[in-house]
Amino acid sequence: MTTTVKIGHSDVVSGPLGLGTNKVGGHNLFKALDDQTGIQTVKAALDHGITMLDTAFMYGLGNSENLIGQAIADYDRHQIVIATKAAQDPDRELKPNNQPAFLTRQVDNALERLGTDYIDIFYIHFPDQDTPKYEAVGALERLKEAGKIRAIGVSNFSLEQLKEANQDGYVDIVEDAYNLIDRQAADTLMPYLQQHGISFVPYFPLASGLLTGKYRADQVFSADSWQAGKPNFQGARFAAITAALTDTVKPIADHHQATAAQVILAWYIQDPAIAVVIPGARTPEQATQNAGALDVTLSVDEVKQISEAFKRLPA
Ligand SMILES: NC(=O)c1ccc[n+]([C@@H]2O[C@H](COP(=O)([O-])OP(=O)(O)OC[C@H]3O[C@@H](n4cnc5c(N)ncnc54)[C@H](OP(=O)(O)O)[C@@H]3O)[C@@H](O)[C@H]2O)c1
Q1: Which of 140, 233, 237, 240 is deepest in the core (most CB within 10 A)?
Q2: Nearest C-alpha to atom 26 of ligand 1 is from which residue?
Q3: Using a 6 Å cutoff on CB, does residue 57 contact ligand 1?
Q4: Is pLDDT above 70 for 24?
Q5: Mean pLDDT for the stretch of residues 177-188
Q6: Residue 59 known to be catalytic
Q7: Which CATH number characterizes residue 91's domain?
Q8: 3-class secondary structure, 182
Q9: DSSP labels for 17-37?
């Protein structure tokens, strides 16, 4: 199993497993979060071998970065890879802003909230409509030269926007939606990334918890639940996903004395097209369990079985 991964053309090196932290302090996005639990979740992840923390200004409008700053205060900063993102502009009702001056200010603000003097990976979280993407990335290159950030990322960019952003070859890493049940990025982005030595980090690796196997096939979601109206949680598609988890993933998990979530995460870790997988966690227990994926090595046949089980799902 891969033990370390180099990020793009930068000198950042990470382990293959990170922690997604939109539920660490992201009160504006999710209900019923507790800040102390968030801090404990980050510590549990670091205590169990997770090395990358993936955060963003948008997660709690700075709160997630603040909590991470508190959580890592007693850890060796150099053993941790901090990835953060910005673009949503509080002065533009949180619409994306990629202007160089704005991004530069956001990096300084993030450094202060995180209580650190460098950010390992800084992503432009979303593209805006008007800033030339090579100018936005050019500003990040200057921050890299100044030592404030170590690697340059973009997130939620189309292939065309990515090509424009990477005009001078400065992009090190891309973060985009990708998981076993939605592999579009494999066709749209990955060929360009591989050609240009750019790393890839998929978000929603657990399909927002669905791929942990914790939902029953006969589960009914109420109209006011967050799952309501989400295609993955409805009808024939939901039935096919839960069946694949029961029929294919569970026996493999049992064989490895692992959980379904650990097996699913191990499936990403073995894939050389994926740099770091960053499952989110709401609690220290989830983060600890997910870290156990580092101990699961799937056989070639198991990887194939899992890949096939989630292909051709009903729309
Ligand atoms: N760049 C972007 O635009 C973007 C967009 C989205 C996300 N992200 C990043 O990607 C990360 C991953 O995405 P995500 O967190 O939204 O989705 P995810 O990783 O697919 O799912 C995470 C959720 O699954 C549940 N879960 C995790 N481990 C579990 C376990 N062992 N047992 C049971 N349930 C478990 C938790 O939610 P519950 O307990 O509530 O079920 C957790 O919050 C985020 O945290 C964020 O850092 C980036």
Answers
A1: 140
A2: 209
A3: no
A4: yes
A5: 98
A6: yes
A7: 3.20.20.100
A8: strand
A9: BEEE-TTSS-TTTSSS--HHH
pLDDT at 252: 98
Q: Is residue 132 part of a domain?
A: yes
Is the pLDDT at 281 greater than 60, yes or no?
yes
Q: Which domain holds residue 203?
A: 5-210+271-297
In a domain, 260, yes or no: no
Distance 254 CA to ligand 1 centre (A): 23
Ligand 1 centre from 200 Cα, in Å?
A: 17
Nearest CA to ligand 1 atom 39: 282
Which of the pair, 35 or 3, is modelled with greater confidence? Answer: 35
DSSP tally for the chain: helices H, then strands E: 12, 11
Q: Which of 204, 210, 232 to mutate to test the pocket of ligand 1 (most atoms within 8 A of CB)?
A: 204
Domain count, the chain: 1
What is the C-alpha separation between 188 and 163, in angstroms, rounded? 12
User: Could you identify the atom of ligand 1 that is nearest to the CA of residue 22?
Assistant: 45
Does ligand 1 lie within 6 Å of residue 260's CB atom?
no
Q: Is 73 exposed, middle or buried (0-12, 13-18, 19+ CB in 10 A)?
A: exposed
The reported pLDDT for the residue numbered 2 is: 54
